[in-house]
Each structure stands twice: as C-alpha cells, then as structure tokens.
Amino acid sequence: MTSLPIYTISIGDPAGIGPEVTVKACRDEALHALGRWVIVGEAWQVMDLAKQYDLHVDQVIHSIDELSGDANVAVLDAGLISREEVKTGQISAACGHASINYVKRAAELCIAGKSKAMVTGPISKEAVAASGIEGFCGHTEYITELCGLDTCRMMLWNETVCVIHVSTHCSLFDAVTKIDQPRILETIEIGYQAMLDLGFENPRLCICGLNPHAGENGMFGREEIDLIIPAVEQAQTQGIDVTGPYPADTLFMQAVRGKCDMVIAMYHDQGHVPMKLYDFEHTVNVTLGLPIVRCSVDHGTAFDIAGQGIADPVDMQTAMKLAVSLTS
Fold first, then answer.
1. Which of 66, 135, 154, 293 has a CB 3.0–4.6 Å from the CB of 117, allowing a cystine?
2. What are the two backbone dihedrals, phi and then psi, of residue 287, each rounded to the nearest 5 degrees?
3. What is the number of other CB atoms lying within 10 angstroms of the CB of residue 225?
C-alpha cells in the first residue's frame, strides 16, 4: 500500500492561537484521508493541546525520516522553547525565534522534496524582529529568500474570487512611489499562471487603479495612464484576458458578482480589506512564484484570545485543503 503524501504545518508563534487552531484542524478526519500531517513545533505544547482538544497524535519524531507510513498526524519536535518561556498572549523574542525556525524547517523539507507543501500558522512580525532577524517583513518574503529567489507575490484565495498584490509588506509610501510598469506586468503574468494552475481554462483578470476613481483620466494622478494601462496592454498582447484599471471601491463588489476570477490589487490593504470583510474564515494566503507550495491562514496571532480555547480552526482547515488541491 502506497503511503499518503506528507504535508508540513509550521505551528506559528507558540504564544498565539496558531498551536490551538493547528491541533483543532488536525482532528478533521477528511484531512487524514488526503495526507500525513506533520506539525513542526514543540512536542510538549502539541501534546498538551492534543489532550485538551481530543486529537490523537500518532508519533513524535525528530527527523522526517522517522515518520511512519500509517501516521495520520505527527509532531516534528523542534525543541526550541520550553514551557516556562512561553507566556500565552505576550510578544517575546524567544517565541519569535522559535516561530521563524518552525517556518524554516518546514520550508526546507519542501525544498528537499520530503514534503509536498507547507501550511503556516500565524507569527508575530514584531516578535521575529525582536529575535534578531534584521529586515524581516513577513512569511512571504522570508520563504522566498529560503528558496533562493528575490521575487514573489501574495495571493488571497477563496471559492468566489482571488486577489494578487503588486506590493505587500511595505509602507504605503513605498507601495505608491516604487510601483513601475515591469512589476505590474510581472504580477499580471504570475496571477494568470496561478489561475491556470488552479484549473481555470480561461481566467479573467481585472486590475485596480492606484488612485481614487482609477485616477479619473489623470485628474487624481497619472499612474493609471503612465504605468498600469501600458502593462495591461502588454499583457493582452500575450493572450492574457486582463482589463482595467477599474476603481477599487467598486471592482471587488463586481468581482464577487462574477465580473472576473482574479483581482489585481496595487497594495496590501487594497486587496486585504475587502477579502477579509467578504469571507474572513475561508480566505487563504498563498505565496506565488515559488518552487514549493505554501498556504497560510489569513489571520494573525490573536494574542488577545490566545489560551481561551475559542479560536476557530476553519481557516487553517481551508488552508490545508487548498495545499492538497494545489499539489494533486
């Protein structure tokens, strides 16, 4: 009998809700039928939560090579932080150090071909920065560097519409001033390929304007005229069905009603706010442009509710299912 494929989950910040939603999500028997799930984190924490939430953990391992072929759920014990060092709901350098190393280990397993995909729990950028990693700005960029690349894109996915971002984790000032035509075109190309990979035969893409009312023909800025429209026209010559730019304040509503399959947002909040408002629980963060598959919950560490037992695992379950779908 052939063993099911391996998928890894980096558990997130040990002081946040990542460990809780991971353990709760791994109780889903439908996921057991899709793969073997290896949780990268602290064995003591996972086992404590597994007892609390009635999850059967088949193995605690220290190397992926120890994983049994019939194990549904296993813990790859990182051994990076003790029970005493974790202060639930509090930001700490120790938790930041542990959380980013869980990510590193999970990514390396994917890069080495020992895991089909990785799913990431939420981390605290502040905690990771406090641990001494200079210039850290998020999972997306960090995993891209681990893969030896210098460019990637963030996509938000749900069953109704997808969003890809021209820029993500940077200041709004940088997002506006550093935009250029090549980056816009590259984003369109990456987004189009992602939709093909998701099974869309003829994906329809629409792009947001950067300015209010998509610039109103130059009245509120010329970025649409000078940068976005030329990129759209160049993409169209490649056979990509992309139109716009459209005013962002109406495009998302139209997309949900069927205007397109993917929206291209110009910056982080332009894409994130409407997607989280529309379907927060079922929206998954996917990193595009990598040689590996990485999906993530689209929520944060939620330190304010950590340890209360009320964190909802639905987004983690959705991310796990999408990771399987993208590698099937």
1. 293
2. -90, 125
3. 14
* Same-domain check for residues 63 and 182: no
Sign of CA dihedral 166, 168, 172, 178: negative
Domain limits for position 294: 1-151+290-328
Q: 310 and 200, same structural domain? A: no
Claim to verify: residue 133 and residue 44 sit in the same structural domain = yes
Encode pLDDT of 107-128 as tens digits: 999 999 999 999 999 999 999 9
Mean pLDDT of 12-36: 96
Q: Within this chain, do residues 79 and 186 fall inside the same structural domain, yes or no?
A: no
> Number of folded domains in the chain?
2
Q: What is the pLDDT of residues 128-141, one digit of tens each?
A: 999 988 778 788 88
The 3-state DSSP class for residue 244 equals strand
What integer pLDDT is reported at residue 2 of this predicted model?
A: 57
Domain boundary among 280, 300, 320: 280
pLDDT band at 1 (very low <50, low <70, confident <90, very high): very low
State the pTM of this model: 0.88
Residues 6+ apart with CB under 8 A from 177: none
Q: What is the DSSP letter of 266?
A: S
Instruction: Return the CATH number at 262.
Output: 3.40.718.10
Residue 156: closest CA among 39, 310, 286, 50: 286
Compute the distance between CA of residue 110 and CA of residue 108 in angstroms, rounded to an integer. 5
Distance of CA 54 to the CA centre of its chain: 27
